[in-house]
């Protein structure tokens, strides 16, 4: 548990809703697009309300959706010229520290529609003080949170990211935080999310 107060900037990578959540099969395209956007908005909303979070820096090339994120209270920057997510995240972390001196950059996946601020606060407080840390997703193979001091910030998002983070020396954070771990990629995960309790943007979408 960290004993040194620190302020976190949450980096939220957001795919354009039009192409996001392609694995939500069986749902109409318009519902899938609305869900992808709602997931990101609910994730951002919870992060903005989390103690210890100074700002949420969303990274997206969807200028229309960027305006919704700004209305919510996020800062927004474009992806840049690379398609490599991890390179984008390193660039975003550097920008976060440039804008908010002394900030701790923390990547948060944008598909956590059940996210509760108090659980995210517990995770942030449990991140190691001087090395990278991460949270394994509910499937056990992926990552929903990655944080590190900017000089050590080297995420490995992609297939099998949890194992990649362990191999790179990141410390796994294990605290009771089911809503931080439950990312939604398919309909089965969406059904579990409904049981956990959806955020206001996602719950406003009629799924029945």
TrEMBL record:
InterPro entries, alphabetized: CofC, Nucleotide-diphossugar_trans
Keywords assigned by UniProt, alphabetized: GTP-binding, Nucleotide-binding, Nucleotidyltransferase, Transferase
A GO molecular-function annotation: phospholactate guanylyltransferase activity
One Pfam family linked to the record: CofC
PANTHER family: 2-PHOSPHO-L-LACTATE GUANYLYLTRANSFERASE
Name of the protein described by the UniProt record: 2-phospho-L-lactate guanylyltransferase
Organism: Nocardioides seonyuensis
């Amino acid at each position: 548990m960290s004993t040194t107060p620190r302020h976190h900037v949450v980096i939220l990578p957001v795919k354009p809703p039009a192409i996001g959540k392609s694995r939500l099969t069986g749902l109409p395209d318009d519902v899938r697009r609305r869900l992808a956007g709602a997931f990101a908005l609910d994730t951002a909303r919870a992060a903005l309300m989390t103690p210890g979070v100074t700002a949420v820096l969303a990274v997206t090339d969807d200028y229309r959706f960027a305006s919704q994120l700004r209305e919510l209270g996020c800062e927004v920057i474009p992806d840049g010229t690379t398609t490599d997510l991890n390179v984008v995240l390193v660039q975003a972390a550097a920008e976060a520290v440039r804008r908010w001196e002394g900030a701790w950059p923390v990547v948060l996946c944008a598909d956590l529609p059940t996210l509760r601020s108090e659980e995210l606060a517990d995770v942030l407080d449990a991140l190691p003080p001087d090395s990278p840390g991460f949270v394994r997703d509910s499937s056990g193979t992926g990552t929903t949170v990655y944080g590190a001091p900017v000089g050590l910030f080297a995420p490995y998002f992609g297939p099998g990211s949890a194992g990649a983070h362990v191999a790179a020396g990141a410390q796994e954070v294990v605290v009771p935080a089911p809503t931080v771990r439950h990312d939604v990629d398919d309909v089965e995960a969406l059904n579990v999310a409904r049981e956990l309790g959806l955020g206001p943007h996602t719950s406003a979408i009629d799924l029945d």
